[in-house]
Write a structure and sequence with these properties.
GO terms for molecular function: peptidyl-prolyl cis-trans isomerase activity. It contains eleven helices and six strands. The protein has helices spanning about 15-25, 25-40, 45-60, 65-75, 80-100, 105-115, 130-140, 145-155, 175-180, 215-235, 240-250; strands at about 5, 10-15, 120-125, 165-170, 190-195, 200-210. The chain has a four-stranded antiparallel β-sheet with strand order 4-3-6-5, sandwiched between helices. Helix 2 (about 25-40) crosses helix 5 (about 80-100) and helix 3 (about 45-60) crosses helix 5.
């Protein structure tokens, strides 16, 4: 057997690596990184980009002195060439994402916009329809404010904020709530509606349309990348089990 690693009194052999990675649930992460390595291999960088990527990497790791760099390399078991590859990896990955999906972001944004829009709303919920109807009439008649009624009667955490919730993306809400809020006008108090085990009273406070700004571009780019990664993963044969490895070894 080929010895590959000595840790204390334990010697790790090549045949043990895959079972160890599997037992520590590290194989999926290894596979992910290998897929990325293959994808970014053709990506080229200018000398200026290389220098900037190295500077950024050292700043992120707080490696300010040569001694710090050498100690970090030793801790992670990296050679100088491996460190250079590592410092460029993030840059090459971002360039790969941009080259692959940069011209698709706008269309993807408009396809996804309905779930990315945000709302601020007031919520009051109870499991008693009679109480819900009574509270709705009180709010409509302006006998009490929505906030006061929510603080006193709402049975969820929103009671702590006078019923106020958000800003929150529509895709985070129950589909029935999305439909109600999307079809209502600001300050319109909606009558009690059954949603799951609750009777809820809703009032839309503010609708906040999603914007294709830089943070949104980064988010959507990463969503497209992760979807692509999952597809790549499905095309690869299942990871070997320990019994598979043992059969090969024997």
């Amino acid at each position: 057997m080929t010895e590959v690693l000595q840790i204390g009194n334990r010697t790790i052999n090549a045949s043990e690596l895959i079972p160890l990675l599997a037992s520590y649930q590290m194989l999926p992460q290894l596979l992910r990184e290998l897929i990325i390595d293959e994808a970014i291999a053709p990506i080229e960088c200018t000398s200026e980009e290389v220098a900037y990527a190295q500077k950024q990497f050292y700043a992120e790791k707080q490696l300010t002195q040569e001694a710090d760099i050498q100690a970090w390399m030793a801790y992670h078991g990296l050679s100088a060439s491996q460190l250079e590859t590592l410092t460029l990896r993030k840059l090459k990955l971002e360039k790969f994402k941009q080259a692959t999906w940069g011209n698709k972001l706008e269309s993807y944004f408009f396809q996804s916009k309905a779930k990315l829009d945000k709302v601020i709303y007031s919520l009051l919920r109870t499991q008693d329809i009679g109480i819900a109807q009574e509270l709705y009439f009180r709010i409509q008649a302006k006998e009490q404010s929505f906030a006061d009624v929510a603080r006193e009667y709402s049975q969820g955490p929103e009671a702590q904020t006078g019923g106020l919730v958000g800003p929150i993306e529509l895709n985070s809400l129950h589909p029935a709530m999305v439909q109600l809020l999307s079809s209502s006008q600001p300050n319109q108090v909606l009558p009690p509606t059954r949603i799951a085990e609750w009777f809820v009273i809703l009032r839309l406070e503010k609708f906040i349309p999603a914007q294709l700004d830089e943070p949104m571009k980064v988010r959507l780019m990463n969503e497209l990348f992760e979807t692509w990664l999952q597809e790549q993963r499905k095309q690869i044969a299942p990871l070997p089990t320990e019994s598979d490895i043992n059969q090969v070894a024997s």
